[in-house]
Amino acid sequence: MMMKMKLFSALMALSLAGMAQAATEGKDYQVLAKPIPQVQTDKVEVLEFFGYFCVHCYHLDPVLLKHSQSFAKDTYLRTEHVVWQPEMFGMARVAAAVNSSGLKYQANPAVFKAVYEQKINLADSATFKQWAAAQKGFDGKKLVAAYDSAANQAQARKMQGLTETYRIESTPMVIVGGKYEVLFNGDYQNGMRTIDELVAKVRSERGLK
Fold this sequence. Notes:
The structure is a single chain. The chain has a five-stranded mixed sheet, sandwiched between helices. Strand 2 (44-50), helix 2 and strand 3 form a beta-alpha-beta unit. By secondary structure, it is α+β, with helices and mostly antiparallel strands. Helix content is 54%, strand content 11%. It has two domains: 29-82 and 168-208, 3-Layer(aba) Sandwich (Glutaredoxin), CATH 3.40.30.10; 84-166, Glutaredoxin (3-Layer(aba) Sandwich). The chain is built from eight helices and five strands, in the order H-E-E-H-E-H-H-H-H-H-E-E-H. It comes from Neisseria weixii.
């Protein structure tokens, strides 16, 4: 009898611990009033609206990039630069080039460092190209080619359209499955756990394996 009671107590403790760790609506996340369509509808999207000018994005970026490398094959990271005013369009072009070149994991840390630590005006086209060409940590020529591509400005305008259509008024904003916004509350590591739980929630809701 005593053994059964101990086993029951242990199971209850584990259950309560699991409940304590579960993401809570209103505390760890909130549901968007207007869902944002995913790019890939057959997977779970983790979407970040960010700005290279944003100090909170600067601190979140290495945490989120590292964590996204642990995502399952049915989950992917999408990043969109906000455009609140014309001066931000140049940085949206940089973000679009980073995305389309496939250099997000290599170039993003360097871009943040250039903008935030070195105070380099990468929104200026000539300055950006000169800076990119001098980089050793990634293929700068590939990044410049993406920046100069015919699609680049259209991609940046799409970022501007998303900012306006969905009224993105603060950064960083991370949205899972197009409808669950993560509330970081200043704790990015705990936010990664929330992302994982929301990914599992979306996966379950959609019947994904």
